[in-house]
Amino acid sequence: MNELTGKVALITGAGRGFGYATAERFAEAGAELALNYRGSREGCERIAARLKQDGRRALVVQADMTDEEAIARMAREALEAFGRIDILVNNAGILFHKPFNESREQDWRAEIEVNIFGTLRVTRAILPAMIERRSGKIINLSSQLAPVGCDGMAVYSGTKGFILSWTKSLAREVGRYNINVNAIGPGTIPTDMNRDVYPDEESLKRRAAQVPLRRVGKPRDVAECALFLASEASNFLTGQMLGPNGGNVMQ
Predict the structure, then answer these.
(1) Active site residue 156
(2) DSSP code, position 235
(3) pLDDT beyond 90 at 163
(4) Rounded to whole angstroms, how far apart are CA atoms 70 and 53?
(5) Stretch 178-196: mean pLDDT, rounded?
(6) Helix-helix angle 154-174:119-133, to 10 degrees
(7) CB contact set of 19 (below 8 Å; sequence gap of 6+)
């Protein structure tokens, strides 16, 4: 099905992990894409090439989530290239895995700067155009750790808790403009970002044994949630968090 035919989506951190899987799934669903990356350009170019072969538009744009000017430029380029952004996926994020009393202030600042401020900056850059058109879908990547926390990832969990709370607040603010704001809280899903959390197959097997479905997830599981939230099927859903976590956290 081409649930997103005629729609334009901007995905941050689209070069790998959840962002890449989401971009791939949106492309399959018929969307045109603005693909942001910080260092993983190759993945974005690969998806952009597929879209262009299919006669659809694609934009690959570099912007570091810590650079407010770069984010503003990215938003301008995307809006100029497509005329609008129907769907914004705030996916870019970073993670440091270590006990809090061994962590450094520079690590805290980095996680807060990217995970929180990056998301806020991108949203503020795109939101006025959505308000003007009175239409839009905003999808924020939170985490299953947001409502429960986690040892070894205290600051990361805190940033994702902020994203969940902010998602709810923003949904209340912009619902009057026909803009839906929702979150996704992935569970145990190995990606490049959390490689040091699950460094080998044995660690993944141990973790899978603790999940009700007795397996870990795949980035595609997150992408399918993003597709639902981006599509018309979710038009009466806002201020919510979907949890592709195998039942590990139930709310």
Answers:
(1) yes
(2) T
(3) yes
(4) 28
(5) 89
(6) 10
(7) 11, 12, 13, 89, 91, 92
Joined tokens for residue 176: 């009057």
The pLDDT tens digits of the residues spanning 129-161 come to 999 999 999 999 999 989 999 888 999 999 999
Query: What percent of the chain has pLDDT above 70?
Result: 100
Q: Give CA–CA dist 97/107, Å, rounded.
A: 10
**Vertex 144 angle, CA 181 and 247, to 5°:** 110
CA of residue 189 relative to chain centroid, distance: 14
Kindly indicate the confidence band of residue 127, based on its pLDDT and cuts at 50, 70 and 90: very high
211: left (phi over 0), alpha (psi -120 to 50) or beta: beta
Spatial distance between the Cα atoms of 105 and 117, rounded to a whole number of angstroms: 16
Q: How many whole angstroms separate alpha carbon 91 and alpha carbon 89?
A: 6
- For residue 152 the two structure tokens come to 């070894």
Out of 20, 156, 177, 198, which one is annotated catalytic? 156
Which residues does residue 61 pair with via DSSP β-bridges, in sequence order? 36
pTM here is 0.95
What one-letter code names the amino acid at 220?
R
DSSP symbols for 79-105: HHHHS--SEEEE-------S-GGG--H
Instruction: Delineate the domains of the chain, giving CATH numbers in brackets.
Output: 8-242 (3.40.50.720)
pLDDT of 26 > 90? The answer is yes
